[in-house]
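Minutes, project check-in
Item: structure for the 81-residue chain
Input as provided by the requester:
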Amino acid sequence: MLVDYFEDLKKIIAGLYSVDEETIEEESLLDADLNISELDLEDLIAVLEEKYAIAIPQSVYSKFIKVGDIASFLYENADAA
């Protein structure tokens, strides 16, 4: 379920970037709201690839604008781990 990926993502982002989990929403912008740079995003993607045993092509990184974008990608591309 999409909600499950979003909840996982909130926990991971909160842990990696010291962001209060309660402030993370699907519409939260990675850069403006959460201060996640492109380099930080690569670290986040590496964690997600390992957790869900998937490869996330670099060509889709630019589509990850909001937290919900990543959750949707995981929902569509990752089998339940």
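Outcome recorded: The chain has one domain: 2-77.
No further action items on this chain.
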